């Protein structure tokens, strides 16, 4: 578990006098009036020794205070006992100020954060759209969450490797080839990706009444695996069209993945993987197929009875390739929850092979974006294409721009940049602000919301900060190192929110949950807007401090939104 310096300092203070058991917690009180940190250690120790918890808490407080020079500006301002025996720690305002200063210097901040994961390598498998299908809203979750997790680990100093594992192999391509040959009315390279999707949907519609079509599909995939020239040529054209479409989508989303390896990339490795499974007696034949059995899970198929491979085999080859080429400490798969069993079987098989222990793998099993009535289905033709969502979000952003005075002040070029950033920001944030493991019901109004707890709300808060900074004559706030005057409630609240930023980044990375960071940024924007409404900034004796608070808010919002893959705009 990674800990911030503040957590480590408080724990170090406690450990000087008391051992910590696993039952002792150091947490943030829900109500800030109870301090910045709180521990239940007195109640745990009192229970173990059958003593009064408040008396134990008083003894602990006395010993801790003996190590703190409160009047000399130590990091703890005071320690109080609350309720049945909670011990609450209040951080000193000047300590909070020093923490905030770090966020205003990008180089120092990045160097500090990079110490968490130095020397470690992480591979993350994300996005992974399927060839011959338009980039659907369902793949948006994997792309957004995966990119945010990649960004978080990179900031924390890990060597990060993003791998886009394209679905470009398997029986579905045999089926698509059948559809192209039967119903295609032009050469594949003249088709759009939407044309290919229509053919795929038609195949499944026709196959409901004609089972022989499925047999034809399986036969054509066998020919594809065996190197049949016609099958390979048709498949290659489908891949070419798809990659062009995916590149367009990634450019629009501002996503760049380090490597793009389709399942077909691992084709030549499959015989070695199968031979190793046989040699180690991990796989055996069953009814003509090759399977791996597990004590508490259904078996996984390695090779079908017609000697064609499965995506399970190809995923094993992928692990072997990553292990031999990148030597990762951690491999993360950002893939939907409906693949949970597959990854449990996969990680267990890799451990049996001695390739990597199961704790070296993580499956971020994200919930689905679905209709109220159930899952999206390409086979039934009821998917939502990302391009349609982006187009409608752009229309919504244009309407808001047209009815605001700020929008009218922008040049045409600035409006275009702002509208695109706002539309994409709205789409991304509506996804990233939700816990990855929860399903999202698709709702046009919610996914394109440009108001409330949204990406555009954060972008607007950032633009407001930049506007304030532009109006002030104060450009340097290096002198803000010590506060002697009393702070307003809003100023103190901002300082007590700033220091949490580092911790939220660490927590979001450790739990593979970018929503922790997303919701922290919403809280920060709300607190800044409250400060802005109640405290005059420019032209007061407190201008230097308040400009510093504004600079820090802008810096955190910019860094946080960048980690989430959302652009900031200086005018909005």
Structure description:
With 572 residues, the protein is an alpha/beta fold. The protein folds into three domains: 5-91, Gyrase A, domain 2 (2-Layer Sandwich), CATH 3.30.1360; 126-370, Rossmann fold; 444-563, Isoleucyl-tRNA Synthetase, Domain 1, CATH 1.10.730. 53% of the residues lie in helices and 11% in strands. It contains 22 helices and 14 strands. The protein has a five-stranded parallel sheet with strand order 7-6-5-11-12, sandwiched between helices. α19 (489-498) runs antiparallel to α21 (515-534), α20 packs antiparallel against α21 (515-534) and α21 (515-534) packs antiparallel against α22. It starts with a helix and ends in a 9-residue tail after the last helix. The mean pLDDT is 89.
């Amino acid at each position: 578990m990674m800990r911030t310096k503040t957590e480590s300092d408080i724990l170090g203070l406690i450990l000087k006098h008391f051992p910590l058991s696993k039952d002792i917690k150091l947490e943030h009180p829900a109500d800030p009036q109870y301090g910045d940190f709180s521990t239940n250690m007195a109640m745990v120790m009192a229970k173990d020794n059958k003593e009064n918890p408040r008396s134990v808490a008083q003894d602990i407080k006395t010993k801790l205070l003996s190590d703190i020079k409160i009047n000399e500006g130590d990091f703890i301002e005071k320690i109080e006992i609350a309720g049945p025996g909670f011990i609450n720690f209040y951080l000193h305002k000047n300590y909070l100020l020093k923490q905030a200063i770090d966020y205003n210097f990008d180089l120092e901040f990045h160097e500090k954060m990079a110490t968490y994961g130095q020397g470690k390598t992480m591979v993350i498998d994300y996005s992974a759209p399927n060839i011959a299908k338009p980039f659907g809203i369902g793949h948006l979750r994997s792309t957004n969450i995966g990119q945010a997790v990649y960004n978080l680990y990179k900031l924390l100093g890990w060597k990060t490797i993003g791998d886009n594992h394209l679905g470009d192999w398997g029986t579905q391509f045999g089926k698509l080839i059948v559809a192209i040959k039967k119903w295609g009315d032009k050469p594949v390279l003249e088709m759009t990706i939407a044309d290919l999707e229509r053919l795929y949907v038609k195949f499944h519609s026709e196959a409901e009444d004609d089972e022989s079509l499925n047999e034809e599909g399986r036969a054509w995939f066998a020919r594809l695996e065996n190197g049949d020239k016609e099958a390979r040529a048709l498949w290659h054209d489908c891949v070419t069209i798809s990659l062009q479409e995916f590149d367009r989508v990634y450019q629009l989303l501002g996503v760049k993945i380090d490597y793009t390896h389709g399942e077909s990339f691992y084709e030549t490795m499959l015989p070695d993987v199968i031979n190793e499974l046989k040699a180690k007696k991990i796989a055996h034949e069953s009814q003509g197929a090759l399977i791996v059995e597990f004590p508490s899970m259904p078996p996984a198929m390695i090779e079908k009875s017609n000697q064609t491979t499965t995506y399970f085999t190809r995923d094993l080859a992928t692990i072997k390739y990553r292990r031999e080429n990148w030597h990762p400490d951690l491999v993360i798969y950002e893939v939907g929850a409906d693949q949970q069993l597959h990854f449990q079987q996969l990680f267990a098989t890799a451990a049996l092979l001695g390739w990597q222990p199961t704790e070296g793998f993580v499956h971020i099993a994200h919930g689905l974006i679905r209709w109220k009535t159930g899952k999206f289905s390409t086979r039934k033709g009821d998917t939502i294409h990302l391009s349609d969502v982006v187009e409608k979000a752009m229309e919504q952003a244009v309407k808001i721009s047209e009815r605001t005075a700020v929008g009218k002040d922008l040049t045409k070029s600035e409006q275009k940049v702002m509208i695109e950033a706002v539309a994409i920001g709205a789409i991304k944030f509506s996804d990233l602000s939700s816990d990855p493991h929860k399903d999202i019901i698709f709702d046009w109004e919610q996914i394109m919301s440009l108001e409330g707890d949204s990406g555009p709300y954060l972008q607007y808060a950032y633009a407001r900060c930049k506007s304030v900074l532009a109006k002030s004559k104060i450009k340097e706030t290096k002198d803000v190192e010590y506060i002697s005057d009393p702070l307003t409630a809003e100023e103190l609240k901002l300082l007590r929110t700033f220091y949490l930023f580092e911790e939220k980044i660490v927590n979001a990375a450790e739990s593979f949950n970018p929503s922790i960071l997303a919701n922290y940024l919403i809280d920060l924007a709300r607190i800044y807007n409250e400060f802005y409404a109640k405290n005059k900034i420019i032209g007061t004796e407190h201008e230097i401090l308040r400009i510093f608070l504004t600079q820090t808010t802008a810096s955190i919002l910019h860094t946080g939104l960048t980690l989430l893959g959302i652009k900031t705009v200086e005018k909005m």
